[in-house]
Amino acid sequence: MRIAFLTYNLNITDGSGRFSHDLFESLRKESVAVTIIAAENRQPLFNFFKIRKIFKDSDIIHAIDIWPNGFYARLISFGLKKPIVITALGTYSVAPFYLHTKNFGVGVYSWRRFIMKWVSNGVQIVAISDYTKEKILEIMPSVDIKVIYPGFDLDFWSGGTIKDTIEVQPRYEKLKPYILSVGALKPRKGYHNSIRAFGIVAKKFENLNYIIIGQSEESDYARKLKDIVKENKLEKRVFFVSNGIDDARLLGFYRNAELFVLTPVEENNHFEGFGIVYLEAAASNLPIIAAYKSGATSAVLGGYNGLLVDQNDLESTANAILKILENTEFKTELSNNSREWVKNFSWEKIIKQYIEIYNAKHY
């Protein structure tokens, strides 16, 4: 069986890139032939006939996200009668099908909704979280969607393939103890809330710091976060680290943290589709704080290996952090549960679910 993949990129520092990379590698381990088409570089419409040739020579076409890759896959393969699978990662399988202007308001469908229906007709859609599935069904209530969670490299993140001592960078060693967030500096990550919540916690834990590992390039949101840090007088307590560090060093940051916090928010149908970082934190034995009404509810089991809070609720977020830090027994319980919870997401288990779908479509 040969699979043609149309994805954004294979950049492992990017959420979709990490998912695509790990999915492809897992398929190769199962001896599945894979041809990768990175839309970021190939510009699908400008390479229409080259990509169509790849599709023609493949048994299954697998696109990442409904828009635009799912659309490209359906358009370029039109008439070939090839089975199509689309994995919906989150925002870009939902937000493009709504209008978000002052004239139209939120919740009004755009013209792309009609294309979404065409693309999805006869296609197997796979959502990476229950919340992503829920959001797609709001647009197309009758579409058949399977949920398959992202897989995870348990061996690496448990330290099994790390030979060197796992340490945080010397520059940040002196910042321990610290709580940790990892993810691009985007509004939907909710850093504007977690920083303010940390400001409340910082008054009780005077030696505690907060490290945020995210994109380093300047943006309006990054500048806003720095302004929030100054407003709350946290310049010596909150530290931003580029997410360009390698996985081994990133693992060091996880393993030296007190807990992991990422409380995403939803705005104009931009939302956290799942959050591989929650699994990275769980594999590092960390208690986790996440938010309801997001894909995080599939990645974190509230009350078992972490706490879930309402979006934009600073007090609840601060109280969740305090509840964990002030109760050593509770913190240890969540940590131990995280180690067990993440075992449910091994790629060895997840990849079999995709192969079942391929086999069903192929035969």
Task: Name its key features.
single chain, 363 residues, alpha/beta, Rossmann fold, 2 domains, 6-stranded parallel sheet, 3-stranded parallel sheet, 42% helix, globular
Domain unit count: 2
Our measurement of the CA-to-CA distance between the termini, rounded to an integer number of angstroms, reads 11 Å
- What global shape is seen? globular
Number of strands: 14
In what range is the share of β-strand residues?
A: 15-25%
| Rounded mean pLDDT score | 90
As laid out across the biggest beta sheet, the strand order is 2-1-3-4-7-8
| Major β-sheet annotation | 6 strands, parallel
Looking at CATH, the homologous superfamily of the largest domain is: Glycogen Phosphorylase B
Question: In words, what does this structure look like?
Answer:
The protein is an alpha/beta fold. It folds into two domains: 2-151 and 346-362, Glycogen Phosphorylase B (Rossmann fold), CATH 3.40.50.2000; 154-344, 3-Layer(aba) Sandwich (Rossmann fold). It is 42% helix and 18% strand. The protein has 16 helices and 14 strands. It has helices at 15-29, 39-42, 48-56, 66-76, 112-120, 130-139, 154-157, 170-173, 191-202, 220-231, 247-255, 276-283, 296-299, 314-325, 328-341, 347-362; strands at 2-7, 33-38, 60-64, 84-88, 98-101, 105-109, 124-127, 145-147, 178-182, 209-214, 238-242, 260-261, 288-291, 306-309. The strands form four sheets. The chain has a six-stranded parallel β-sheet, sandwiched between helices. The protein has a three-stranded parallel β-sheet with strand order 9-10-11, covered by helices on one side. A three-stranded parallel β-sheet has the order 12-13-14, sandwiched between helices. Strand 1 (2-7), helix 1 and strand 2 form a beta-alpha-beta unit. Helix 1 crosses helix 16. The longest helix is centred in the last third of the chain and has 16 residues, at 347-362. The mean pLDDT is 90.
